[in-house]
Amino acid sequence: MSTLSVALTGNPNTGKSTIFNELTGIRQKIGNWPGVTVDKRMGYIKHDDRAISIVDLPGTYSVNARSPEEKIVIDYLLNEHPDIVVDVIDASNIERNLFLTLQLLEHHIPVLLDLNMIDEATKRGMKISSKKLSDLIGMPVVETIGRSAKSTKKLLSVFTSTVMANYKNSDLIESHIEAVAAVRAGEGKDDDKEEKVIALRYALIDKLISETVDTSNMASTSTTEKIDHFLANGFIALPILLLLLYAVFEVTFTWIGQPLADALDFIINTWFSGVVDDALTTLGVADWLHSLVVDGVIAGVGSVLTFVPLIFTLFFCLSVLDGTGYMARVAFVMDPIMRRAGLTGKGIMPLIMGFGCGVPAIMGARALDSEKDRMVSILVTPFLTCGAKLPVMALFAAVFFPDNASNVVFCMYIVGIVMAIIMAKVLNVTTFRDKQSTFLLELPPYRIPDIKTVLLETWDKGKGYLIKAGTIIFAMSVLIWFLSNYNFSGPTDEMTESFLAVLGAGVSHLFAWQGFASWQAGAAAITGVVAKEAVISTMGILYNVGDVADDTVDAANQMMTALGGSFTALSALAFMVFTQLYSPCVTALGTIKKETGKWKWMFFAFAYTCVVAWIVSLLVYQIGRLLGFN
Amino acid sequence: MAVVVGQNKMTLNHVRAGSSVKVEYLEASPLKERLMSMGVVSGTVIKVLSSAPLGDPMEINVRSYNLAMRRKDAEKIVVSLLPTA
Ligand SMILES: Nc1nc2c(ncn2[C@@H]2O[C@H](COP(=O)(O)OP(=O)(O)OP(=O)(O)O)[C@@H](O)[C@H]2O)c(=O)[nH]1
Ligand SMILES: [Mg+2]
């Protein structure tokens, strides 16, 4: 039998990806805000010996092909002719969801209606008669709870047993389609006609709802409204937002992440390094190999691995935040500020993704309404503190501001956000002089984050960081070790005569006025373009050498002392600011090229972020000096 | 700016938080079609909920979901006050 093709479509935030993930085992990003999925994704599965392909589509409110997502959806449905089109409906929000359903039926696309989130509808006191709804429109109707594996698995049997050809539009729907056709054929401007059609659809929806949904038990004020009264109301919402971000940060940094990181630091950089060191000495391996393993790989990869707990905690917090529905409120609360920068509050949602990693954040910008919003959002995303920059900030703050480490790192986050907003304004005025942005955003109900989703997502992203440490950072460490121990005449004992010293010294001239003109800092800045973590693995290698051999010394402390020798508190701060703002890593640069379609924007992103970073770090250093710091 | 459109009629941006209104009609605007697609059509009941810092944008409840929009866009929605229940 041929593969059964199934397409999941529906309004944004109705649980399509949740269902898709449950059915296929793939881990699409899930979040409680509209516009999480921005591209289609295929998955395959077997059920009762039947091969099934499932596609997860971006959510859309309608299919007029006005936005890229709407175009993806309607093109897919009309060109690929999936055997079953599932219209995933948020049952607690059925009225507006049926709008898309009617549009699909008007296109003569038969749909399997899936009343998802039926648990929430019930909780809110709505009673929906699926049977009646099915009779009224002529299409099959099922109910699911996306978060329950048991409930979604039942869908598979529905898929294999349902023959969509057996269903056809009811007379009610057919007469609606005729009415729509009559309006379209009539006199008048296209826009006016389209508005009449929309009114017709809602008239039919009102009729369908009155016959199938019993709302007599619905509470007049929902819990969400009550919460919003505090979190998204008036001026107080801004300090609350800042406080919540600070709390996330405090949990990551002070409570959980850093203490674990400190423990791990000892284990890897002192204990493990010492053990390996001794073992290699006992085995009597060649000096260069010994040095490569201990001073290169362990020092380089180890310094990055140390921060794994921090990264896991950060991803955990972000994922929890994602699941609550507060993200959409951040967009709401930030809109007044974003508007003054010529942007839309919605732009905040992909930016917050950027706290995890810039790559999905850059892609997530697709969910924005205008091309200008998308371009600006893509170009300012690199300023945010991604998961890979966090270790750099953490390390430097721990060394130079031991008493205020977490506050200093939090300030770096704020610097990133503020620069992103300022540059958005600048780009808006200089480059994208376009019409004003709009802001129309559904604020989803607050939900308790699904713990399974949160844990899986944390694990996946944390694993990504680990894999990166084992691949890119590993390779970089070997390379850095080589470049810092060799020059044209072969191995060198004096690192200052190595390839890397020459390279780094060349670049470091640029930072003469920033106070960190050492070749090590220059070298770290170069390697940081490949991956931000490489900044610390470079430092780890460059400042560790020679110390580890003496395993009575705490290698980590040694590195800190060495760092302390070449930076002052102020120049370290300038270096942190520079690292925070300068060039996106190569992966992010590649994504910028892909998403904007032009090399030009990629080079622009590289160049302008470097310039901004250079200027801001200069200001930090020089103003700091004027104020009497050093 | 015409605040009072007719007896008991006003534009949505002037409705106080907590009040419920019925949509009379929408004036032409770039968002008109999108608003209508999302269920803001004549006859729809809207409850005004809260507003962001500095009063803009505002949050409304429409057809059992919550929607945020800017006041500038709400100005294009003409509504009539419903008696408070
Ligand atoms: N209570 C409840 N929550 C659900 C159910 N299904 C999904 N959710 C939650 O709803 C939110 C949205 O889920 P997603 O799967 O990301 O929704 P989507 O339709 O893919 O959203 P977009 O990609 O933005 O279109 C998440 O927080 C889910 O945990 C359900 O049946 N009941
Ligand atoms: Mg999705």
TrEMBL record, chain A:
Residues reported in the UniProt entry to bind GTP 4: N116, M117, I118, D119
Keywords on record: Cell inner membrane, Cell membrane, GTP-binding, Ion transport, Iron, Iron transport, Magnesium, Membrane, Metal-binding, Nucleotide-binding, Transmembrane, Transmembrane helix, Transport
Binding site for GTP 3: D56, L57, P58, G59
InterPro entries per the UniProt record, alphabetical: Fe2_transport_prot-B, Fe2_transport_prot_B_C, FeoB_GTPase, G_FEOB_dom, Gate_dom, GTP-bd, P-loop_NTPase
Keyword Disulfide bond among record annotations: no
Binding site for GTP 1: G10, N11, P12, N13, T14, G15, K16, S17
GO function term, MF aspect, one: ferrous iron transmembrane transporter activity
Domain FeoB-type G: 3-165
Protein family: Belongs to the TRAFAC class TrmE-Era-EngA-EngB-Septin-like GTPase superfamily. FeoB GTPase (TC 9.A.8) family.
UniProt name for this protein: Ferrous iron transport protein B
Organism: Pectinatus cerevisiiphilus
From TrEMBL, chain B:
Gene3D superfamilies named among the record's database cross-references: 2.30.30.90
GO molecular function terms noted in the UniProt entry: transition metal ion binding
UniProt KW keywords: Iron
InterPro entries referenced in this protein's UniProt entry, alphabetically: Fe-transptr_FeoA-like, FeoA, FeoA_core_dom, Transcriptional_repressor_C
Top-rank lineage group of the source organism: Bacteria
Annotated Pfam families: FeoA
Domain Ferrous iron transporter FeoA-like, residue spans: 10-81
Protein name per its UniProtKB record: Ferrous iron transport protein A
Organism field: Pectinatus cerevisiiphilus
